[in-house]
Amino acid sequence: MATRGVWWFLGGALVAVAASVVTYDTTLGNVLYFVTYAALCAVAWRAVARTPAGPQRRLWALVAVAQTLWLTGDVIEIVYYYLSSVPPVGVADACWLAGYPLLAVALTRMAARRAPGRMRAAVLDGMTLAVAAGLASWQFLIQPMLGGPFSLAQTVVPALYPVADVVLLTAVLFISLSPGDRRAPTRLLLAAVSLYLCVDVAYNVLPMFLDYDLVARIGPLIMLGNALMIAACLHPDRAELTRPGQQVNVLHPSRVLFLGLAFLTAPTLSVMRSGLDSNTMVALGATALSTAFVLSRFTIAVREQEKAQAQMAYQARHDPLTGLANRAVLTAALDRGTPGPVAVLYLDLDGFKGVNDSHGHEAGDLVLTTVARRLSAAVRGTDLVVRLGGDEFVLLCPGLPETEAVGLAERIVGDVAQPIMFRGTALDVGASVGIAAYGADAPANDGDMLRTADHAMYEAKRQGRGRWVLAASA
Q: NCBIfam families from the entry (predicted)?
């Protein structure tokens, strides 16, 4: 589905959910709720069917199954509501609870596929935060349910919902903290799961302060979470959720803050349980200060490591003399594919060996760096300038038609031919340029464009220095 269609779908879902909230607990509201929910499940399964076969489809199928189970639980409860009475716990709870682990598995597998081999930090940080959340859930949500005048099922089943929320929180933390692209599909997915968690927490907490009939009206918001998740599946860029991302794993300041809060959760809860006095407040303050010092030292160490890794990554992808991209970057760009129109210009310097022989390698380095600057100034911001090695350069120009590629080659021939001053002497070099230009019929294997431009460059060399040759006329 096109991006505009995704936003229209979300807009329609938002209107339907708002109407369900307004008409909640009426016959009209129940009909609208189930019609909307069933429609969303149908769209979810249709999106799964239109996803290419493979791991990506299986993960989205788990999401659709989870949503269908939640709908099934609602159907069972409404049948009880109209035919007899709703039991405190029952089959509906089994359906609702079963959806959480399925969704958690789907999210965890998405995180693993988008960051293969780079999940260790995300898992450790996610588990740290999950333990803190689990401790808070135990103290405020689970423990108060235990030991009451209820049956075993009435005690255990309600306590399973906070546990399911912690499991779901852990899975979404894996995606949030793992490296990878974070465009619209990822944001939609995170928004959906965040909404699920907020609704569940509100169901547990708000009845302590508000009338339950008012709190129950937030129930239809689950459907909005479903719509957000379906929109992520419908989005044309949904592959980013399961495709290895290119984003570098950088320590975000909020990550350090969340870890600090997680470390302080246990002592804070202990203080709240035992009561506040001067000694406990001093102990809590000292713990917070020590945590701040430790995390500060940790952050400094990580930043130094990130700088070293960034430097190594830059050196692996750039020519050390000119600062231009190297062959590895060009190969990766060609492997990704470039739809037409596209042009590749292959350059070889004329007279460069003579400069090296007559004036030395220092003069040769000056020529190479000057030519690199002139090439970078001649192209657009979307073009890629590469030094292959020696005195050979390549320009990859997506979206550049043949006529403009020829004009670019003419400018480059003129720019490179301008004298380069070295210790009072004008160094004279030129450029032979081969052009491979394609329209919509760009070859599927973009490596062919590079070879074609290379052959055209040799033809320009054969005809004489300071020339360009278009591959079609070679």
A: GGDEF
